[in-house]
Amino acid sequence: MMGFSNPVYDGSFADPQIIAVGNDYYAFATNGPLGNVQTLTSRDLVSWEAVGDALPSLPEWTSPGRVWAPEVAVHAADRYVMYYTSRDTAADRQAVGVAVASTPTGPYVDKSMKPLISQADEGGSIDASPFQDSTGRRWLYWKNDGNAIDVDTWIYVSELSADGLTLVGPVHRLIKQDLPWEGNLVEAPYMVERDGKFHLFYSGNAFDEASYAVGHALCESPTGPCVKSGDPILSTSPDAAGPGHNMVLGDWFVYHAWNPAQVGTDPKGRTMWLSHLTWNGNTPIVQPPLRNNPTDP
User: Fold this and answer.
1) How many CB atoms lie within 10 A of CB 214?
2) pLDDT digits over 100-132, tens only?
3) Which of 8, 15, 40, 285 is most buried, taking the most CB atoms under 10 A from its CB?
């Protein structure tokens, strides 16, 4: 029988990101029952096993409890670089850190004395997402946590050094919240290059509301300019509410969502879902969240 059942992981697994290494997949998520950086492994994207905590020890500038939205860039067979969000205790705001491991599951180690990015005067910095373009240049996208202090939220980008550990060159602002559906914020950037164009996926509105959704913008380069498509490309369905914080793996959209009957209050929190992604020219077409998905990954 074809197809699979969502959620593919029915436990707390917010802000999911997946990497492929050989025949295996590894998924990382915001802190939860499995630790600071919850980690799963799979052979088919559908059946997942818990691995544990990829970031068991945190650097001195932070403390456990708010370790969010980890994303890993694969540099080599023995080098994996993780970008994650955690509390900058000195500034009392969220900030972005970077940690390195020699295996996909870690342990990732961050020996830094301060965060990689800490925009305390803009509310903090969260949701870092690495991207390597077709020329080999590496970039890092993130969001200033403006909604924490009632200021604008911007998606930022800067080029990364070859080793992925420092920002080099100018910092660019790409988009902010300016469409009705986005509410007070945009966040969770994820960049995809396709046929010479750059596609910025992002989430908008409140994460614990059914109005949370995923948007898209078409960009001329990794640093913009970017033009939004308008309405969300993935939003609440009868099967799942508040889908968001997506990433793209081949023809699949990976994201988290709530049980529609318990949005914002489900004891399990946000679970991991897959939807099929197709394209109409430069327009991404994403299946709505389907509990019984007819297509296999």
Assistant:
1) 23
2) 999 999 999 999 999 999 999 999 999 999 999
3) 15
> In the structure encoding, which two tokens stand for residue 295, read together?
């297509």
Residue 205 has phi, psi (to 5 degrees) of: 80, -165
pTM given for the model: 0.98
3-state secondary structure of 148: helix
- Rounded to 10 degrees, what is the CA torsion of 124, 269, 239, 288? 30
Locate all alpha helices (DSSP H) within the chain, ordered by sequence: none
Alpha-carbon span 45 to 288, nearest angstrom? 18
Closest CA to 173 of 139, 143, 131, 201: 143
φ, ψ for residue 122, nearest 5 deg = -110, 20
**DSSP state letter for 206:** -
Amino acid identity at 205? N
Quick check: helix, strand or coil at residue 180?
helix
d(CA 102, CA 76): 9
Lookup: tokens for 161: 């050094």
